[in-house]
Design goal:
The chain is α/β, with parallel strands linked by helices. It has helices at residues 8-18, 22-26, 32-36, 44-54, 89-111, 129-139, 153-166, 211-227, 244-257, 260-270, 276-284, 288-297, 303-323, 329-337, 339-350, 356-363, 367-378, and strands at residues 75-76, 170-174, 176-177, 180-184, 192-195, 202-206, 231-233. α6 (129-139) packs across α9 (244-257), α7 runs parallel beside α8 and α11 packs across α12 (288-297).
Amino acid sequence: MADVHIKPEVLRWARKRSGLSREVLEQKFPKLKLWEEGKKYPTLRQIENFAKKTRTPLGYFFLKEPPEERLPIPVFRTVRNNRIPNPSPDLLETVYLMERRQAWMREYLLGQKETPLPFAASARASHDPVSVALEIRAALGLDEQWASRFKTWQDALRALRDSMETAGILVVTSGVVGNNNYRKLDVKEFRGFVLHDEYAPLVFVNGSDAKAAQMFTLAHEIAHIWFGSSAAFDLRELQAADDSVEQACNKVAAELLVPEEELRRIWPAAKTNDEPFQILARHFKVSSLVGARRALDLGMIGKEKFLAFYRSYLKDDRRRKKRSEGGDFYATQSSRIGRLFANTVVTAVKEGKLLPYDAYKLTGLQGKTFDQFAEELFGSRAA
């Protein structure tokens, strides 16, 4: 097979983009160094395999110079001057996949003569966080004591997610790219992102993150929808980047989950307990991690105490994850696809408004697996 004259700089770019070291790649491509120096050239089969290994679109290798890849949304990092200059292939593919799903959902809703969601972009970052939190609760059908009705914060988290989807917000939680369990999403790169749209706003929560932190991420994302802004963020230590909208989202999220007035009322008694953050968790039905972060924000504890608790909590959470590996396949798919989106796709297939093949591409589920997914989660076969 003839060699293909690939530009060495494109090969170097693909390697660096993948995050894999030359040493790792040379185990499968021993002539990589010579390729990158322009002394040898790969065959078409070799470049196809190299594209797959580095998660690079094949067409990129035939460009005269490396392309400049940018996310279609801004990325905010908690640490200053630490923006992501080159988003990972995993983040890029995840955002692109969610954009395709959102675009289909928007088109479907327009075809159904649906009207824009009244709360999308209804607030400004300069608005009072308490007032915005009240508006969010009203739109989601939640009163100020909604969380107290649940036994655990995990139940409250599920209820919040369900309320969002009932209101018309697409909610996706996944720790992998699509359905590829070998491509884990890096929580250090992003905890979540929001794709704003007046008909089909979409929030994505990185499922690789600690379950306890996911609740705050979700609340932060809700605020983004009210402010009408798309963004990806890492929320390191549950703290927003130095940006006015990001800061406003954090304030609204905190008020939504742990109202300041109520926290100040119970804190004098809670702080005398050996586990004060557990007291907050039980009272507000949030994780103790969120309770600790709110106490820090209001100056009730110092940063050193919060960070010590934060690191200890995450360490314990990793142990819990190892003990609870596995899970129900269809329940996992419901989170990865989003119940609202999946239900709409299944309905469209049943009504003949979407071909099964297109539904397979949108959901990442094929044939009988898709049918079984519809039956398990929605009680009826799609096709």
